[in-house]
Amino acid sequence: IAKTHQADSSETPPELPKQMKHDPDEYLHAKKQLKKAILECYRGLEVLENYRALNLIGFRKALKKFEKYTKIPAQQAYFTEKIEPSAFSSGVTMQGMIREMEELYAARFTKGDNKVAKTRLRGFMQHKTHHFSTFRTGLMLGLALPALVDGLYLSFRHDTRQAVPGYDGLLFVYSILLIPVLFSLLLGLNVLVWSKSRINYVFIFELDLKTKLDHREYFEVPALMLSTLCYAFWLSFARIGSSHFSPTLWPLIWLILAVVILLDPLPFYSRHSRFWVLKELYRLLTSGAHRVEFADFWTGDQFCSLVFTLSNLYFVGCAYAGGFDEHWARCLGTEEWGIPFVLASLPFLARLAQSIRRWVDSKLNTHLINGGKYAAGIIYYLVYFNWRHNGCFVLWCIFGTVYALYASAWDLLMDWSVLRPRARHPYLRDELLYTNYIPLYYIAMVTNVLIRFIWVFYIPVRGPSVVLRTFIAGMLEMFRRLQWNFYRLENEHIGNMDQYRVTREVPLPYSVDEIHEDDEDEED
Question: Could you tell me if 310 and 343 are in contact, meaning their C-beta atoms sit under 8 angstroms apart?
């Protein structure tokens, strides 16, 4: 018997059915999915509870106004007879559902601790002050201003131009670095206006409710970046320590500092938000390999407005590799224009891949039409760089016109959903959120189209240099994108309102259809 038992124990145990197998990694992944689903469900219940309370307030205000004009004391009688017997009056049902969700979360995720469960579930409802955030932002911007003003003054002095090697090239390097930093700072104005207009950008971008930044907190990191860049600019042209540090070294020092701040794993300067940006950059670089969310293509559109910086990264590398001297302009006139073209086209290629992926997932031809816009943008920059080096002027004008018209039409008709002649405000749309600023809609429509045609600024032979023109065009495109953001998020928010979307659709680790089928079988 002992030998038989030993032989049996040495044998491989029989393979379990697939339904009885449990992968620990899959279990943890499923647990996280269910946890997120409960959080979203709880948030939906809180929104519904707020809606219930808002309805009661609406009834009271309507009846109060009725009493005011008719002099009939009907409020108390109407509430007693009609409102109080209704289910939404007492809120017992809603409170029971909320309590049930809290007990479920406590039983599954906090070891039965109801207090901890309530704290985690209501984390998004916590309010905090932002006095120190506002102070730090103001301090950074206040310190940056004198450095910027004095740096500009010094940079235009004749003795500075003589002492700083490659003075014009160094100014151009700082202009390349300035636009993305200034852009990130001014994006805070977008967040500020969205918050004041009650646009649910947190839901649109699918931000974590526990780690999301208030608009006052958002300004901190961009303000720090801008302040340090202004001081690097001032140190370059003030020539402090020029015997030990070349004026051209300060932009590199600032660039290293910016990368360190962005990649810093320590919990300082909004670590979760910085990592969210890095995650979006990764998703942008891998466009087409995964499902496209709103934050993905919105990020791609932001980079489409940073072509000035992206295309001139080659100039920065060339200037530092060859040295800043009187021949720095050779980096702009090089025949190797393929690299700047590829760098300029990267955001458009990413957006094209995203549009194709969205068409594959949804089968909506609208995404292919949108992808055609980015394909036209790639062709436009191809003929633009070709014109600057080989002189195909007519072809560049043709594609510049086609792309500007294509992009302008998409901006107005699709991204903003305006140009509706029968709307309450002619050529806008029926639903508007910035109702106190109606004239700005028309101004934005005109300026958006005009800046789309900024390429004509390069045509005149006389006037500012090409370097200055590209910088002005880059600044105008940055402001156009900031303006575009206001109305794009407004349109997205209105679309969510029309479809009653206030919570995220969290994927579950099981099929809902199978559960319904099992329920039907049990009923049979």
Answer: yes
Q: How many separate domains does the chain show?
A: 3
The SS3 call for residue 428 is strand
pTM metric for this prediction: 0.84
- CA–CA gap between residue 235 and residue 237 (Å, rounded): 6
- Domain identity same for 149 and 75: no
Residue 16 DSSP class: P
| Structural domain range at position 337 | 286-301+327-510
- State how far the Cα of 524 lies from the Cα of 518, in Å rounded to an integer: 10
For residues 221 and 266, is the Cβ–Cβ distance under 8 A? no
Q: Do 101 and 154 share a structural domain?
A: no
Tell me the C-alpha to C-alpha distance, in Å, between residue 61 and each of 54, 57, 266.
11, 6, 51
Q: Quote the tokens at residue 142.
A: 């206040």
Domain assignment present for 259: yes
Give the span between the Cα atoms of 440 and 424, in whole angstroms. Answer: 16
One digit per residue, the tens of pLDDT, for the chain of length 524 reads: 444 444 444 445 455 445 545 678 787 878 888 888 888 888 888 888 888 888 888 888 888 888 888 888 888 888 888 888 887 777 788 888 888 888 888 888 888 888 888 888 876 555 667 788 899 999 999 999 999 999 999 988 988 888 887 888 899 999 999 999 999 999 999 999 999 999 999 999 988 877 888 888 999 999 999 999 999 999 999 988 777 788 899 999 999 999 999 999 888 888 999 999 999 999 999 999 999 999 999 999 999 999 999 999 999 998 888 777 766 777 876 667 889 999 999 999 999 999 999 999 999 999 999 999 999 999 999 999 988 887 788 999 999 999 999 999 999 999 999 999 999 999 999 999 999 999 999 999 999 999 999 999 998 878 788 889 999 999 999 999 999 999 999 999 999 988 877 777 777 777 666 555 555 555 55
Buried b (16+ CB within 10 A) or exposed e, 505-523: eeeeeeeeeeeeeeeeeee
> Which alpha helices (H) appear in 71-130, and where do they start and end?
75-78, 87-90, 92-109, 114-121
